[in-house]
Amino acid sequence: DAGITQSPRYKITETGRQVTLMCHQTWSHSYMFWYRQDLGHGLRLIYYSAAADITDKGEVPDGYVVSRSKTENFPLTLESATRSQTSVYFCASSAGTGENSPLHFGNGTRLTVT
Amino acid sequence: GNSVTQMEGPVTLSEEAFLTINCTYTATGYPSLFWYVQYPGEGLQLLLKATKADDKGSNKGFEATYRKETTSFHLEKGSVQVSDSAVYFCALGLNTNAGKSTFGDGTTLTVKP
Q1: Contact assignment for A92 to B95 by CB distance below 8 Å
Q2: A15-56 pLDDT, tens digit each
Q3: CB–CB of B39/B95 below 8 Å?
């Protein structure tokens, strides 16, 4: 099915562990994004990518790593999880900029760090 | 820099009431404007968009008009339903911003029967 899928849907991990959140899109969109959503902070951009092998930091990149070896995949890794990284994480993609920049979002990963 | 300011919520309405959620923006250049809706437990979905001044975006009974003179993009619906209960986000996108969108903080709408 066409779309953008995130996995896992829910994840509980311990402080200090590494965890990777997966994101896959089937539209061949150039742009992909990772956001976190927290009460009182709205959506905050963690990292984004304009194309395969091109990534850049967003508003809150510390503690996160991304890669984009293939256009359709954009995994987000928490190298050493902290409680402050408990959040809902959304992956999104878009075809371009300006009027072509409407985002297509996945259904999110709810991450709890204990 | 670019920014989007939304009317603070939460907003609670009775079914069939008129809805307005205010959105104003600041942008360098000529942005495209969007409204997204987020239902509980889901990601955001594009609700409507407008790409130039005086354009009106519409979808599912919702409308918003791109007003350059007031830098606004207010969301309206004439008669809300319980199923419209969700969080609504205003956003802008620029050709010069590497595909990144700027989002407002979201407005939670609850519609009571």
Answers
A1: no
A2: 999 999 999 999 989 999 999 999 877 899 999 999 999 999
A3: no
